[in-house]
Fold this sequence. Notes:
- The chain is mainly alpha-helical.
- The chain has a single domain (20-125), classed as 3 helical TM bundles of succinate and fumarate reductases (Up-down Bundle), CATH 1.20.1300.
- The chain has helices spanning 19-50, 52-63, 65-92, 99-128.
- It starts with 18 loop residues before the first helix and ends with a helix.
- 8% of the residues are buried.
Amino acid sequence: MTPVERPLSPHLQIYKPQLTSVLSITHRATGMALSFGILFLIWFLAAAAWSDGAFALAQGFWGSWLGLLCLFGWSFSLFYHLLNGIRHLAWDSGWGFELKTAYLTGWAVVAGSVALTLAAWIAGFCLRGAP
Length: 131
């Protein structure tokens, strides 16, 4: 018996990513990033309750460039996951399935996430110097 030549299903080498698929994958990734970030939040709170030395170590990490990068990514993940979750709630109600609307709301989620992340960080740095 000779094998039947069948067409292959699309795979990553020939598949062109679409905005909706990229946003879906990003939604899952940001959910995982938020879950992982909770561990760092727990570490920070436990260090604050444990001792001055433990808190100083945690504070030193969050004040470093790596800690700030983690916080920036975590805050972007928070805003992205929130806005895309609202978009999914709209889909659950039956609104937004048209291709034009799906792309419009998708780009709105991306733009809103960037804007809210920057606004939160700018506000945080402005309030940081306030007495």
